[in-house]
Amino acid sequence: MIVGVPREVKADEYRVSLTPNGAEELSRAGHRVLVQTHAGDGSGISDEQYAAAGAEIVPATADVWGRANLIIKVKEPLPDEWPLMRPGQTLFTYFHFAADEKLTRAVMASGVTAVAYETIRDAKGGLPLLTPMSEVAGRMSIQEGAKFLERPFEGRGILLAGVPGVAPATVVVLGGGVVGANAARVAAGLGANVFLLDVNLDRLRYLDDVMPRNVTTLFSNRHNLLEVLPWADLVIGAVLIPGAKAPHLVRREDLKRMPPRAVVIDVAIDQGGCFETSRPTTHAKPTYMVDDIVHYCVTNMPGAVGRTSTYALTNATFPFALQLANKGADRAAHDNLGLAAGVSVRAGKVTNAAVAETFGYPLELL
Ligand SMILES: NC(=O)C1=CN([C@@H]2O[C@H](COP(=O)(O)OP(=O)(O)OC[C@H]3O[C@@H](n4cnc5c(N)ncnc54)[C@H](O)[C@@H]3O)[C@@H](O)[C@H]2O)C=CC1
Ligand SMILES: CC(=O)C(=O)O
After folding, report:
1. Active site includes 295?
2. Start and end of every Alanine dehydrogenase/pyridine nucleotide transhydrogenase NAD(H)-binding domain (predicted)?
C-alpha cells in the first residue's frame, strides 16, 4: 500500500497525522510512506526525522494525493482538496459530516472510502479516536475561557479562581462526557464553582463519585439549564450524539439570562454546536459577540497545541491506520466492527446511519 500524509491546510492546524515512529512501522510492514514536505513542522517534527524513518518526502500536495491509496489526515478535506480525492482511495481523518452537507456531497461524488476517526468504536462502545482530542479540548476550554473572561478580550473581567473575600466564577458544562469531565476537573482545580449537566444518569452517578466537591452534577433538561444560566460566567458546550448534528440546547433568547460579557466555549461546534448562536471560528479570530455574550467556536482547538495533540492523536489512530494499510478498507472493516463504525461513505453511498438521517439520504449497509 502507498500511504500518504499531506500537510494540513486548515487555518492554524499544527497537527500531523503520522509520527516518524508510525512511518517506521508502516515501512517495516512493507508499505511506502509519502510525507509532504513540512507536514510535521507545526508539531516540531522535521522532514529529516521522517526520512530517517523510511518515508519519502514529497514536495507537492497533488503528488501525495495522486500517488497514495491510503491518505491519512487530521482534519476534514477542505474545498481545495476535494478535486484531489480519487475513486478507490481511502481517506482516514476527522470528517464531522453531519455539520457540513457540502463536504458530505463532495466525498460521495469523489468515490473515496471515508473512514471517520470520530465514529470508530472500541469494545466498550467508546469513541477511542475522539477521546484524546476531547481530553485536549476539554482541558483547553477552561484555559481559553479564562482568557476570554478577561476584559481586554471582551469578557466580564472575572478571575475563575476568585481571591480571598471575592467569590470564584461559576462554570456550567453541558455534557459530561470526555470534554465535559476534563473541563469540569480543570475548572474545579482552579477553584471555580462548576455545574455539570448530562442526560445519562449512570454517567452522572460516576461523575458525582469522582469529581471534586466544587462540582455539582445536574440532570440536563430545559428547566435546570435555565436555572443555572443566570449564574454562569463561563459555559462549555460539550454535548455529543455520535455522528449526528448537536442539539441546540441554548437558544438565542436564553442568552439574555446570562450575565453580560459572559463567555461560551462551544467545543461541540465541529458537530454544528449546541448553542443556536454558534458559528465556526478559527484560532486567528476565535470569538465574536452575540447579545453581549462572547462566543468562542473554534473547530480545531487541539490544533493550537500541535505537539501534545499529534502524539495523543496518533497513539490512538495508528493501530487503525496500520490495519487499513495491511488489509485495505473493506477487509479491515470486515475484520474489525469498531473500525467498520468509522466507515461513513463508501463508493458514493452514505454508510453511517446518523449522517444518512441528518441529510435524509438513503443508508447503505456495509
Ligand atoms: N472543537 C474542537 O476542536 C473539538 C471538538 N470536540 C467535540 O466535542 C464534543 C463532545 O465530545 P466528547 O466529550 O468526546 O463526547 P462524549 O460522547 O464523551 O460526551 C458527550 C456527552 O453528551 C451527553 N449528552 C447528550 N445529549 C445531551 C443533552 N441533551 N444534554 C446534556 N448532555 C447530553 C452524553 O450523554 C455524553 O455524556 C463532540 O462534538 C466532539 O467532536 C472534541 C475535540 C475537539
Ligand atoms: C475532534 C476534532 O475535530 C479535532 O480534534 O479537531
Report:
1. no
2. 149-297
